[in-house]
Input
Amino acid sequence: MANAAPPPGTADIFPEESRRWRRLEAAAADVFARYGYGELRTPVFEFTEVFQRGLGDETEVVQKEMYTFEDRGGRSLTLRPEGTAGVMRALLNTDVLNGVEQRVYYCGPMFRGERPSAGRKRQFHQIGVENVGRVAPELDAECIAMLMHFLEEIGITGAVLKINSRGVMADRGPAGQLLRDYFAGHVAEMCPDCKTRFERNLWRILDCKEAACREIVAGAPDYFAAYSAESQEYFARVLASLDALDVKYEVDRQLVRGLDYYVHTVFEITHAGLGGQNAIAGGGRYELFLPEQSKPVRGVGFAAGMERLMLVQDSLNTGKPEPEAPPVFLVSLGAAARLENLKLAAALRRQCQHVALEVEDKSMKAQMRSANRLGAVTVVIRGEEELNRGVALVKDMAGGDQQEIAIDSLEKFLTKEK
Ligand code: HAM
Output
C-alpha cells in the first residue's frame, strides 16, 4: 500500500460527512415508517447461490461484478451486490410464501466490481425497501409514491420517474420472439456486447447506451402489444394508481433493468444533477427464486444509491446538515484546576452538553486558541485563584463579556445558557 488511500472504488467517510449519512438514513426511516416499513438488517455476505439463483446467472452483476470468495470451510460466499436477494432469504423465515405481507427497509454497503467513476463505486450504499408476500398493482404504485415522497423529504426536486412493464414470465416468449425476429436482421451493426446479448440476454439490448444500438432499438416493434391481456391490465392499473396519487411518470419501453427477477412493473428515477450514471434509484416487482425453493418470493421494492442521492442534493444545494452545536470549552490553569474541570466536563456531558477541554499543561493563550478553533461560544476559565475562591470565570466568546459565577451554580448556569 503506497499511501493512505482505501481500495479503488471505496471511500472513507469522515465525521463531518457521516453526520449527513445518518441524516439521510433517519429521513428514510421516518418516511418509510409512515407506510409501515420496519428495518431489516441482513449480513453483508451470503452464500453465493443466493445471488446466482436470485438475480439470475446471466445477469451482468452475477457474471462480472461479484466479490466471491471461499471461506475456511470451503463454502462459496459473496459480498452482497444488492439487497433484495438477501432480504428474501431472510424473509423465508416468515410467512411470505403463503401470502402474508412483510414491509421492510434496509440500508448499508453493497459491493460490485465495476469500473469506478463519479457516482459509481465498488463499495456503495443503498437505502432500499421491499414489500413482500402480496401482489397488487396498487402496492407497486404505493411503493413508487413512497420513493417520490422520500425524495421530496430530502429536498430532491426535478427527479424523473421512468416506468415500464416486463410482463410475466409467460409473456417473454411471444414478446421476446418479436424482438428476436427484428434484432436478427441487425446483429451485424450491434456493439460487441449486444452481439453477445442477442444470444444470451436479448432484452438488455433495449437499454444499451451505444449510439448504433440505440438507433436499432428505436425501430424495434411494440413488444408490449404481445403481452397477455392480464399483464397489460396490470400495468394500466399501476398507471391509474399513480395518476390517482398525482405521481408523474414517463413510460419508457427501453427500460428493462439489469436483474432477472423482475416481472410486471419496473421503474427508475433519473436526475439531471448526475452525469453519466444518472439513476438515483431503481426497482420493480419481482418473483425471486432462492436455492432449493420451487416457489418464488413475490414482492415489489426499490433501492436508491446513497452516494448518488447526495450528489444530486449537492447539485441542488441541499442536504447539508446544520453545524453541530458548539462546545463549552474549559480552560484549566494548573493541575488542580484541570482535575476539577475533568469532573465538571463529565457532569456537563451527562446533561447532554458538548464539552471540550485541554488535558495538557498549556498556556491560557494556547487554550483560548483551541477554544476558537472549535468554535466555542462559552469558555470557562479556572486557575488556582478561582478554585480557592470557589468561582469560575465564564466568558462569552461572541460578545466578549466575562462574569464570575459561583461553583455551586456553575452547572446550572452553563446548562441553562444553551
Ligand atoms: P439497482 O438498479 O442495481 O437495483 O441499484 C439501485 C441503485 O443503486 C441504483 O439506481 C444506483 O443509484 C445505486 N447503485 C448501483 N450500483 C452502484 C454503484 N456501483 N455505485 C454507486 N451506486 C450504485 C437493485 O439493486 C435492486 N435490488 C433494487 C430493487 C429492490 N428492486 C426491487 N427491490
Observations:
- The chain is about 40% helix and 25% strand.
- The chain has a mean pLDDT of 95.
- Residues 86 and 378 are 50 Å apart (CA to CA).
- Residues 15-34 form the longest helix (20 residues).
